[in-house]
Design brief:
two-stranded parallel sheet; single chain; five-stranded mixed beta sheet; Helix Hairpins; 7 strands; Chitinase A, domain 3; 39% helix; alpha/beta; 2 domains
Length: 157
């Protein structure tokens, strides 16, 4: 199975969530199940059903996070030396003609958050940027049509 790229920040966020699920959420739901069982007849016990459903969700999420972390190729952008080219983890300043300049960091799918300026490596803009360098003009096929950007700067932070 191919490794999935992830920044050190993204891997740490997943580790924190995994720790919270295992040390806080899992024990809480086990307690809730025990309390619901104490109420008697399980066939008509909505609290028990809700707690079991919550337990299933938590266990599924734990498995998902463990798989993602086990399959992650963690990349520290500060350690990259890509001769000024856009690569995974790079922070890129872009300008679309007639619009304000924007800054994006190219990150893994789980870390993407457009409001925070982090775009997925699989997004149309990131795919258009990969391999390009400062001063290049790129065309990205986005859902809103083709967008033309000029790369103002490429950093590794």
């Amino acid at each position: 199975m191919a490794k999935t790229p992830m920044t050190t920040r993204g891997a740490e966020l997943l580790r924190v969530e995994l720790h919270r699920l295992k040390s806080v959420e899992r024990p809480n739901v086990i307690t809730a199940i025990a309390e619901a069982r104490a109420h008697g007849d399980l066939s008509e016990n909505a609290e028990y059903d809700a707690a079991r459903n919550q337990q299933g969700f938590i266990e599924g999420r734990i498995s998902e996070l463990e798989a993602k972390l086990g399959n992650a190729q963690v990349v520290d952008p500060k350690l990259l030396d890509s001769d000024g080219r856009c690569v995974f983890g790079a922070t890129v300043d872009l300008e679309e003609k007639g619009k304000k300049a924007t800054t994006y960091q190219i990150v893994g799918d789980d870390e993407a958050d457009i409001k925070q300026g982090r775009i997925s490596i699989n997004s149309p803009i990131a795919r258009a940027l990969i391999g390009k360098e400062s001063g290049d003009i790129v065309d990205a096929q986005t859902p809103g049509g083709v967008k033309r950007y000029e790369i103002l700067d490429v950093r590794y932070e």
